[in-house]
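Run Fimbrillin-like protein through structure prediction, thanks.
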Amino acid sequence: MIRNMLFHISVVLLIIGCGKYEDSIENPSPNNILVEVEAPQTNGWSTEEIAGTRSGITKTVKQKGEYDLNMEVSTLYYPAGYATDEAATRWANMEDNITFRVIAYKSATATEISTANYAGYGDYKLSGSSVQTTKSLILPMGTYTFIVYSYGNSSAITTFTNSSTSVPVTNGQNFMTYVKAGVVINNTGSKYTLSNIVFKHHCARYRVQAIAQAERMGIITACTGTVTLPKHNATYSFTNNALTAQAGSGTINITWSSPNAMSVYSNYTYLLPQTSASVTIKLNLTIGNKPFSNRSTTLSGVTLNANNTYYNNVSFTTTEGYIIGGNIWANGNLYYTAETKKYGIYPNTLTCSKANNAPDYFVFNNPLPNNPELVTTWSDSRDPCRKVEPNSTWRTPTLQEFNNLLSYAKGVPKDGYTIYGDVLKLPYSSFMRFTDGHPHEPYFDAIGYYLCTTYNRHLQNEFIGGEDSSTGEIIAFVIRCVRNK
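Sure, done. The structure for Fimbrillin-like protein is below.
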């Protein structure tokens, strides 16, 4: 009885093992061969010298923006030898933890690939210098063409079906392939190792460099964005090892990892090859602790070639202020011209009249300089900054806004001025006292007071929120306006 039971079990196992191409690694059929894979490499990213004229190689757009925050965008190749990891090489190690797929066809060449001679597929993941098998590929003896592909990430690849001899690709995927044809496998009951896999890059590598204007802005501390291209989807064909992009626009995200500098590079993303493309870049970023959203520009005639690395320089500039402490601060202090009855902003940040009857000293919430009329409750209608043409472009800062600015102060007074974050300089303006309704020449003992919207509070360079001496005299101060939006 026991002998008969053992014979029956053996027969069942033999029938199950012979009926499949794909089986477990631990117990393959004796007539099939387990396909293992050596750690693959890539052909390295191409880096080209910028040669000849700049036209056709560099695309530049200048665009004036809100608050006069202007954008200048250039599209460039990475110059050869830009950095060690950018240098063009024949062989380059793959990033760790990348998944890839091996598909086998019973054919001697790629041109003979068809759904009819499909033999199976296996999935693998690079782990250090070795390869882990996620789904094993087991084949009978024969001659095969292997199609190897990866989307350049650690995510599991969508299950393959034998309904076609192609796979889809979209922007944002680092799509790579390798074709190995005419492989003869005849070591029955053993293993075959697929070696010397060198992936070919089918997309362009791309990143964005956001740049804040030196001596005008604080650092960039946050940045995200999108890129929209006319071709977003493509199909890779196994038979001719070609990637074909289809018309149909799409948008991908661009990300930065903890930016904290005047110039910050995004992480790499990957774009389908296309020519004469119209590319729209849209960024949301924080400069000098002030957020800016939907900063957008479009570049036309852009060409992206496979296996090349490109980047966009997106430079932000302004001529109408300083971006720091969460605000856009005016170029200079506020002044009033009696002859024209107009308000203006000094073009130089250090200008201060420092004279009796000066046109740039204002009493709290008084729209006219040298006017001793005193009010104690702030009203926007009386704000002198709001009277600078065009109307409502500027306003007097709040106490909190000035405190935020002072939190960026660094260094010590230099040449009579305090330097804020090496960006904005404020003159030692002191203050003017009124006696019998007449202003007197300002005091200048290396102090600088600035009016804010809180009564009986003013700002001194060395101190945050210095209290007024409350002598009973009416006092006038200079004003450094901020943008009203």
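The chain has two helices and 38 strands.
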